[in-house]
Specification:
The protein is an alpha/beta fold. The chain is built from 10 helices and 22 strands. The chain has 2 domains: 189 residues, FAD/NAD(P)-binding domain, CATH 3.50.50; 212 residues, 2-Layer Sandwich (D-Amino Acid Oxidase, Chain A, domain 2), CATH 3.30.9.10. The strands form 4 sheets. Strands 5, 6, 7, 8, 15, 16, 17, 18, 19 and 20 form a 10-stranded mixed beta sheet that branches. A 6-stranded mixed beta sheet has the order 10-3-2-14-22-21.
């Protein structure tokens, strides 16, 4: 096919690539931006999101909190600008526990995250004269508090969250959190980018031509032939294929992928209130199986792990507006590194396991176990770095960049990550958190030492 030219070619039209295109075209005025993807935009992993966002992020350091605060600033700005076409709410995340030790840890971690810049920690212990706890409204985001409320009075917890287990000892309601319609958000960004000159072409990036140590052109395989697009700038926003596309410019990106699934079903028993925040149970647990079920599970290496202690982090939220009764549930209880494969290899037991796990927090869900509801299971790959922080910035070849490893926080981080990528490309002023997300961080001895002491950052 005839040769073309572009100022920037972005590989991948998921939310990372679209956010980058938006900031390059709309905010930086670089009109000749090409997005190349063989699939429709937002269709591989980005549309499988649970669509939540939060600034409630642990350390080490404040880089993730600062990135997320900026991203939420931009989300709110875009919501106002668009007439809130993507229905941004501020319902919050509610972390709950029935373990006294974890209740103390919840308060300690709350104080730590608050100090990192997420907002004040307000203690609600039911004492006389204490400022009242005010629940979040189900819709909208204006005028809502930041930080978190930690509730340690069981009567107060029961009054505001009667659906929770009576065993619940403490609950932390992180407030600059919520969810939105990710598909409408992503399409709004894409429409704005296209209105400012960006182009979307169906095709697979199959090569990047490098000469004199810098990017010269990108080859895109399309129906009818290959397009060679002359360009000085190439952006790897390939999501689950970040590693393979990185190799096109000789970059060895330190990422891997995990398969994460979710379920959706109709909560006809109305166990989860329609106004509820995202509900997260932070206690490990052992699932209650019958003797016959235990024997069957023990027979296979693929299911035997369901008999031991299961991790924390099972979570759920209501989904939809109006008369919707749909709820979403997730539990990353088994996520070994895997090679991305499509269609997804779905676990037939996943829906039942998640529902069983969620009964620890919401006991009334046990009413579904005798006859399991018809559940839709889908998901995608969390492509992530070891410490679960993104890669945004230049690659060793001049003119090559990466925006990826957005793991399970791609939608919530995309606005600030796209802005950061555009600043690198356009040569504008970088925010103070930029070095924390560059590939070069792994060459810093202090950062490598930090990795030895810290686990993965902030994954539910």
């Amino acid at each position: 096919m005839p040769g073309q030219r572009a100022d920037v070619v972005i590989c991948g039209a998921g939310i990372a690539g679209i956010a980058a295109a938006y900031h390059l075209a709309v905010r930086c005025g670089i009109a000749d931006v090409v997005l190349a993807d063989p699939e429709p935009p937002l269709s591989v992993t980005s549309d499988k999101s649970t669509e939540c966002y939060r600034n409630w992020w642990p350390g080490p350091g404040d880089a993730m909190v600062r990135l997320m605060n900026r991203s939420i600033d931009l989300l709110e700005e875009l919501a106002r600008q668009s007439g809130d076409v993507f229905h941004l709410n501020r319902r919050g995340y509610l972390y709950a526990t029935a373990d006294p030790a974890r209740a103390r840890e919840l308060e300690r971690l709350g104080a730590e995250i608050s100090a990192l810049g997420a907002g004040p920690l307000r203690r609600r212990a039911g004492r006389p004269g204490e400022a009242p706890y005010v629940p979040a409204p189900p819709e909208g985001f204006e005028g809502q508090p930041t930080g978190a409320d930690i509730l340690t009075d069981q009567a107060l917890i029961r009054r505001h969250f009667p659906c929770l287990s009576e065993r619940t000892l403490a609950a932390l309601h992180a407030r600059r959190c919520g969810w939105f319609s990710a598909q409408q958000y992503g399409m709004y960004l894409l429409e704005q980018a296209r209105a400012h000159g960006a182009r979307l072409i169906p095709g697979r990036v199959e090569g990047v031509e490098v000469g004199g140590g810098r990017v010269r052109a990108v080859r895109v395989a399309r129906v009818g032939g290959t397009s060679v697009i002359a360009t000085p700038t190439f952006v790897n926003a390939a999501g689950p294929w970040l590693t393979e596309v990185g190799r096109l410019v000789g970059a060895d990106l330190p990422v891997f992928s995990e398969l994460h699934l979710k379920i959706a079903f109709r909560d006809d028993r109305q166990v989860i209130p329609r106004h509820a925040p995202l509900l997260i149970w932070i206690d490990p647990q052992r699932l209650a199986w019958s003797e016959e079920e235990r024997a069957l599970l023990a027979e296979s290496p693929q299911t035997a792990h369901l008999l031991g202690e299961m991790p924390d982090g099972v979570h759920a939220r209501p989904e939809g507006r109006g008369d919707s009764t749909t709820v979403l549930m997730l539990w990353p209880y088994h996520t070994p590194p895997v090679a991305p494969v499509f269609p997804l290899p779905l676990d037939p037991a996943y829906a039942e396991v998640v529902l069983r796990g969620m009964t620890a927090m919401l006991p009334a869900l046990a009413g579904y176990l005798e006859r399991l509801p018809r559940a839709v299971v889908d998901g995608g790959y969390y492509t992530k770095t070891r410490e679960n922080r993104p890669l945004v910035g230049p690659l060793p070849v001049e003119g090559a960049y990466v925006i990826g490893a957005l793991s399970g926080f791609g939608q919530m981080a995309s606005a600030a990550a796209g802005e950061l990528l555009a600043a690198h490309v356009a040569g504008t002023e970088l925010p103070g958190y930029a070095p924390a997300f560059r590939l070069e961080r792994y060459q810093d001895p202090a950062y490598r030492a930090l990795l030895e002491q810290a686990g993965a950052s902030g994954q539910l």
